[in-house]
Amino acid sequence: MSLCTPPRAGFDLRLHYPQGVDERKSGDTPTLDRQIVALALPALGALVAEPLFVLVDSAVVGHLGTAQLAGLSLASTLLVTLVGLCVFLAYATTAAVARRLGAGREREALQSGIDGLWLALGLGVVLALVLLLAAPWATDAMGGAGAVGQHAVTYLRWSALGLPGMLLVLASTGVLRGLQDTRTPLWVAAGGATFNGVLNVVLVYGLGLGIAGSGIGTAVAQTAMGLVLVVVVVRGARRRGASLRPATGGIWANARAGAPLFVRTLSLRLAILLTVFVAAGLGEVALAGYQVVASVWGLAAFALDALAIAAQALVGFGLGAGDVPRVRGVLRRTLQWGVAAGAVIGVVMAAGGWWFALLFTSDPQVRTAVALGMAVCGALMPMAGWVFVLDGVLIGAGDGRFLAWAGMVTLVVYAPVALAVRHWAPDGAPGLAWLWLAFAGVFMAARALTTGLRARGTTWMTTGAAP
């Protein structure tokens, strides 16, 4: 079945074998390009749909008052960080399912996916309970006091009820990506974002629930998304005779595979937090400029992440099938796509930096800082494209332990450079330029070096159903 085949009515799962696998195992470039695009474009749509939850909540809650919006800002930062650290549920499941599918073990692929769902559900329940109890402490630790802190606690506690659903979304999406299907998560994400918007308006204003209504709406929408995706996966599992019961061994295997990816993600989060810390030390102008540039960087990351997701699915499938030449072809072609996409995005960022700044601020000093920061990021964006794709390739290969080690090494390399910028760089626009040179240059170069050297070898190319 071609990757271009749309999802069946009712999101009924079908296995999406990469086009040409049976006829030409190594695949030609046009065929491979079609596979990359067919996986990456829907993945990009799903990635863009997810931030709409916070955007819609902000738009609705913002009209309630400044204290409510500030409380939402604190609470959503905590939630986004928490869910972001759990992205290993999607990554580890993608690699495991794709390998087994490539090896022709469809039942085992779905069984691994079911085990991943149980892990996500259990972890989601635990995190929800912790957040319900620790919400006041967490908001206080972030500086939420008075009315702002109260609103943050209210939103946190209601939206925490949606954590099991959100983690099920991550795990289910990983299963479907492993099955070479990125379209179903796109439709569910788009539907969930729309449903969330309607619920927010009805609950916040129609029923007068205030910020609590926003938290309830988000939790309900996330739970609904999780249930829809679980139904899709469960239908496929039943059709292929996979057990739906929780298996301790399978759940533990998923946890072991995900733990190194958690460490990798943690290292990235720490690097970002360190960057914000340095920006804050360079003055208000630098911090304001950093926020704008970081927002644009985040949008660019969606496009590069989509290519990384395509690489994950195709590499996992190829290694499962034992087709090393095909995997080398995927590596080469996705890297070309990544660098090219980074170059295009970089030109837009560098050339449009001043115009982007006009959209966000009227302060001439901040505009200058944004323009300088965007120019630095734009020049280095092709390297970021290289890094994102290599990450996806190694995640798809199940090389999590190396990525965990490499993540900590790059953090150790970056930390003194970032702190040096805070200590010696001038405040304002010049300091922000130096900071982005440290992050987009030194940090990304360290990641490019570690993952690039790994990809040049063959250690990560373990073939078969399990890495």
UniProtKB/TrEMBL annotation:
The compartments listed are:
Cell membrane
GO molecular function terms attached to this record: antiporter activity; xenobiotic transmembrane transporter activity
- Span-the-membrane segments of this chain are 36-56, 76-97, 117-138, 158-179, 186-205, 211-234, 270-290, 296-322, 334-357, 369-390, 402-425, 431-449
Checking InterPro entries in the record gives: DinF-like, MATE_fam, MdtK-like
Record's keyword annotation contains Transport: yes
Family assignment from sequence similarity: Belongs to the multi antimicrobial extrusion (MATE) (TC 2.A.66.1) family.
UniProt protein name: MATE family efflux transporter
